[in-house]
């Protein structure tokens, strides 16, 4: 660099003047590129050209301008590399950010949130700042040798190894296995709130009666066909039932308090509230962390923990529309990453040390105020998100003051001993909140729905000690991943509204709770309780109608039930291994919203063998007040028939609808484990996989795809499709097939794309291979989640396209600079320019295609959701 420029650069460092886009504009103008204006130009220059530009008198003429230009370029980190590496910011770039103010407000102000801020705006910034993964306790399911980590984690071992003799390790962390065993792995508690003002004003009846501390009855008002009113009784039994007089303190004592000591014993506990909007979830959940923090802090003050530098940390975030936001940091968007050990880190999440309980209150208030809420008919301040407050006990090793990470987030330096997550779920019926709503609200609802389903699945898998925990089912379960493995404890508080107007939702909530409990291996609700807590009359009725011997007491019943449940656990695993069963499971995983689109009018739940795996329940129905039946759904219809004399109304009334919605062309696995779609002829033409236009039909037969042993896609057809014959598509053929043909996405999944004609019918557009086939994709939620995924992909692609463009522009600038050099070869210039322009065009066309696909998908989703949810 010439002396003058070097001097200018030096002067600039001191000067600290603002970089003006006027300078940039002039500079671009002189290069004939004024239309690029400041943002693009500012990032598209090779720094090696800088001396040339300055020397040749491009742009900045005065010393001051030159200084500004140089400063600008320094700030933009003109190293010719950063622009092409969108997701791996270097420490260098961070350094720049820190020292040169890359993200300084003055630059943001001048260049807006344009290209300059690419990295600042997206997840990368978060990742780069906080990607240090927490040293969580390794999962027992984690592949590879985790011994070192465990040893590292284990305070006892680490103490011994490090030769620290100041504390007796065996005393320091008493592993009280008896105590741990005494705390149930899953506890399901129901809380009934009092009638609220609105319900009282409407003179609504209280239809929920609580008997003892574990039983409740819902008296459902019904009408006979001849319009005579009658009451149907539904009885439930849980680990605890708390009536409307129970205080929040008592709720704490019966739910969270017993878990607190286990937090110091490496337990990851989860306490969540489930229930319809306005049922009291927030009211119930909000005080719990406060009380828990009190107890945790008290424990931490014990010398044994204090000496080991145990500390309590709090974080509070929400999951809204499948995205994470920090409620204690201005709703900053967070991203979730898995580290090499498959441990989940929420990148950028702020954690605050809790030394004093009062601060917890403040945090709760602050976080709750930041939470996404909206108004519903049932609740003026209805939660539209899942809020997760975590209290983590961490052990901090002694760090020399000089070495201490001085970033104000010491939390990261500690190792998690145990933690408890409090989750205030969004209203359970929000999935049904789709009528007359905009796309955002519908997606919101479907997201909620999906996560509630996934949560239930995880809890079930967890309690069945399944190896495969389906935590990838939703963001919620992914976030809670480490709470689903190892030592975990779950408390579910089902909140119910007592009013007659909420009866259906109340029943749905109770059924969800019942299913969570009853499907678990330890789901033996009242084995340890006095059986005659059940009203005598019902006991009798149960005995007389159930398949169990009349003499069998509740204990026997429970024994059998438990046996059955364990068997169920086994079967569930088997089921997981079979694709067919997996498909059946998808049926089982119907939305919890019980919205009208999932409900038929009281149709009986017919046997669907694999799906009925989890139908066991203990719901006593006393229809018309004169007969009671008990349903013990089993694995097969025959089993059910044998044991059920009178079938109570379906838990999910939607079965009929679901069945009719589900195409017969369900996926099966053939003998070779290939994915095989079967279809009936009728559904070929009307099938949910999309109707086939005439042209397409003539071009290809009834098109079901099968993967043969070589991994090729086979097209199979039923006999009625006379034109159909097996044909194997070669790779080339595949590229020729019509638009609405199966496509393999980046993950190797097969995706059906449909033509516009097919949009309105394509319920099952995405078909993913693998054992979890269509669990979400075949459901309405699956469709929405596909939209969300595509949305993310589109945004990522857009970002990538901009970065590519920047790279290309950089090359163009270089070309221009070169061609202006004396003696430059024009041929060279032309060839290179042609190449660069082709790349530019390809990049743009790719993005346009993706955009069009997404628009198409949005329309499709819109049509589908309108079709599914009849206006009320
Ligand atoms: N057990 C209770 N005792 C007295 N009032 C209650 C109780 N439970 C809830 N409430 C009141 O009912 C109203 C709704 O409760 P809350 O906001 O907790 O419902 P929610 O289930 O969280 O609703 P959403 O899902 O819409 O957020 C609040 O005004 C709350 O104070």
Overall description:
The chain is an alpha+beta fold. The protein has four domains: 3-121, no CATH class; 162-399 and 406-523, Kinesin motor domain (Kinesin); 664-747, no CATH class; 783-868. The strands form six sheets. Strands 1, 5, 6, 7, 8, 9, 10, 11, 14, 15 and 16 form an eleven-stranded mixed sheet that branches. Strands 2-3-4-17-18 form a five-stranded antiparallel sheet. A three-stranded antiparallel sheet has the order 21-22-23, with no helix packed on it. The longest helix is centred in the C-terminal third of the chain and has 43 residues, at 826-868. It is globular and about 95 Å long. The model is unreliable at 1-19, 38-61, 73-181, 400-408 and 523-778 (pLDDT under 50). The structure holds adenosine-5'-triphosphate. Residues 193-194, 196, 275, 277-283, 376, 379, 381-383, 426-427, 495 line the site of adenosine-5'-triphosphate. It comes from Glycine soja (Wild soybean).
Please write out the topology.
Layout lengths: L2 H13 L5 H10 L6 H7 L6 H6 L7 H13 L15 H10 L4 H7 L6 H4 L1 H8 L16 H7 L1 H8 L6 H4 L4 H6 L3 E7 L4 H5 L6 E4 L3 E9 L5 E9 L2 E3 L5 H8 L4 H4 L4 E8 L5 H5 L1 H14 L2 H4 L3 E11 L2 E4 L5 E7 L5 E4 L4 E2 L3 H14 L2 E2 L7 E2 L2 E10 L19 E10 L14 H25 L11 H5 L8 E9 L6 H16 L17 H10 L8 H24 L1 H10 L31 E4 L3 E4 L6 H7 L11 H7 L5 E3 L5 E3 L3 H6 L7 H6 L4 E4 L5 E4 L10 E2 L2 H6 L5 E3 L5 E3 L13 E2 L12 H40 L6 H43 L4
Parallel strand pairs: 1-5, 1-16, 6-15, 6-16
Antiparallel strand pairs: 2-3, 3-4, 4-17, 7-8, 7-11, 7-14, 8-9, 9-10, 12-13, 14-15, 17-18, 19-20, 21-22, 22-23, 24-25, 25-26
The structure holds adenosine-5'-triphosphate.
């Amino acid at each position: 660099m010439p002396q003058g420029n070097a001097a200018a650069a030096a002067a600039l460092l001191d000067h600290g003047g603002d970089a003006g886009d006027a300078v940039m504009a002039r500079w671009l103008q002189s290069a004939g590129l004024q239309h690029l204006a400041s943002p693009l130009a500012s990032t598209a220059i090779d720094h090696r050209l800088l001396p040339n530009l300055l020397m040749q008198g491009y742009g900045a003429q005065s010393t001051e301008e030159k200084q500004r230009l140089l400063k600008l370029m320094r700030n933009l980190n003109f190293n010719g590399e950063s622009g092409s590496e969108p997701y791996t910011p270097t420490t260098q770039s961070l350094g720049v950010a820190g020292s040169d103010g890359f993200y300084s407000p003055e630059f943001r102000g001048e260049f807006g949130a344009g290209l300059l801020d690419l990295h600042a705006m997206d997840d990368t910034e978060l990742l780069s700042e906080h990607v240090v993964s927490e040293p969580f306790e390794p999962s027992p399911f984690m592949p590879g040798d985790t011994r070192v980590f465990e040893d590292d984690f284990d305070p006892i071992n680490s103490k011994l190894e490090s030769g620290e003799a100041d504390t007796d390790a065996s005393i320091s962390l008493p592993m009280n296995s008896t105590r741990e065993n005494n705390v149930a792995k899953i506890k399901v508690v129901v809380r009934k709130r009092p009638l609220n003002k609105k319900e009282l004003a409407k003179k609504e009846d209280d239809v929920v009666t609580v008997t003892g501390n574990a039983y409740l009855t819902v008296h459902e008002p019904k009408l006979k066909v001849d319009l005579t009113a009658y009451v149907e009784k539904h009885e439930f039994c849980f680990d605890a039932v708390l009536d409307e007089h129970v205080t929040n303190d008592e709720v704490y004592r019966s739910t969270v308090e017993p878990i607190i000591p286990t937090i110091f014993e490496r337990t990851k506990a989860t306490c969540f509230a489930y229930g319809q909007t306005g049922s009291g979830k927030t009211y119930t959940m909000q005080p719990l962390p406060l009380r828990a923090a009190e107890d945790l802090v008290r424990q931490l003050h014990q010398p044994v923990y204090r000496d080991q530098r145990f500390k309590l940390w709090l974080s509070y975030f929400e999951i809204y529309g499948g995205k994470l936001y920090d409620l204690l940091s201005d709703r900053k968007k967070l991203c979730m990453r898995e580290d090499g050990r498959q441990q989940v880190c929420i990148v950028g999440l702020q954690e605050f040390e809790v030394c004093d309980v009062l601060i917890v209150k403040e945090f709760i208030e602050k976080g709750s105020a930041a939470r996404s809420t909206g108004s519903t008919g049932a609740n003026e301040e209805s939660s539209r998100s899942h809020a997760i407050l975590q209290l983590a006990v961490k052990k901090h090793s002694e760090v020399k003051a000089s070495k201490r990470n001085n970033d104000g987030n010491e939390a990261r330096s500690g190792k998690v001993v145990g933690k408890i997550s409090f989750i205030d779920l969004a209203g359970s019926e929000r999935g049904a909140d789709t009528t007359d709503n905009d796309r955002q609200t519908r997606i919101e609802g479907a997201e909620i729905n999906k996560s509630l389903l996934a949560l239930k699945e995880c809890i079930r898998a967890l309690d069945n000690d399944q190896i495969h925990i389906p935590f990838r089912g939703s963001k919620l379960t992914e976030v809670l991943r480490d709470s689903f493995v190892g030592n975990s404890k779950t408390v579910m508080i089902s909140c119910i509204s007592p009013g007659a107007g909420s009866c259906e939702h109340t029943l749905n909530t109770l059924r969800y709770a019942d299913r969570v409990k009853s499907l678990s291996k330890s789901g033996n609700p009242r084995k340890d309780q006095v059986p005659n807590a059940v009203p005598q009359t019902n006991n009798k009725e149960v005995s007389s109608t159930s398949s169990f011997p009349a003499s069998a007491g509740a204990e026997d019943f429970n024994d059998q039930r438990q046996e059955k449940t364990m068997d169920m656990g086994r079967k569930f695993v088997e089921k997981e291994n079979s694709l067919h069963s997996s498909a059946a499971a998808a049926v089982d995983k119907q939305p919890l919203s019980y919205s009208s689109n999932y409900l038929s009018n009281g149709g009986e739940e017919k046997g669907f063998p694999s799906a009925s795996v989890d139908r066991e329940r203990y719901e006593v129905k006393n229809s018309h007040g004169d007969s009671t039946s008990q349903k013990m759904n089993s694995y097969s219809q025959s089993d059910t028939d044998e044991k059920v004399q009178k079938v109570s109304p379906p838990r999910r009334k939607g079965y009929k609808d679901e069945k009719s919605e589900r195409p017969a062309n369900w996926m099966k696995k053939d003998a070779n484990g290939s994915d095989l779609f079967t279809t009936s002829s009728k559904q070929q033409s009307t099938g949910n996989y999309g109707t086939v236009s005439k042209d397409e039909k003539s071009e290809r037969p009834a098109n079901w795809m099968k993967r043969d042993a070589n991994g090729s896609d086979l097209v199979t057809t039923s006999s009625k499709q006379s034109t159909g014959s097996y044909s194997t598509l070669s790779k080339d053929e595949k590229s020729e097939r019509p638009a609405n043909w199966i496509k393999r996405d980046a993950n190797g999944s097969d995706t059906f794309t449909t033509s516009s004609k097919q949009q309105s019918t394509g319920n099952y557009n995405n078909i993913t291979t693998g054992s979890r086939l269509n669990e979400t994709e075949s459901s309405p939620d699956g469709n929405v989640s596909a939209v969300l995924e595509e949305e993310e992909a589109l945004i990522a692609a857009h970002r990538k396209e901009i970065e590519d463009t920047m790279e290309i522009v950089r090359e163009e600038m270089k070309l221009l600079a070169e061609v202006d050099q004396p003696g430059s070869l024009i041929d060279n210039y032309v060839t290179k320019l042609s190449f660069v322009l082709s790349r530019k065009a390809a990049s743009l066309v790719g993005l346009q295609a993706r955009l069009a696909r997404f628009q198409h998908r949005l329309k499709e989703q819109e049509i589908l959701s309108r079709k599914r949810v009849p206006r009320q």
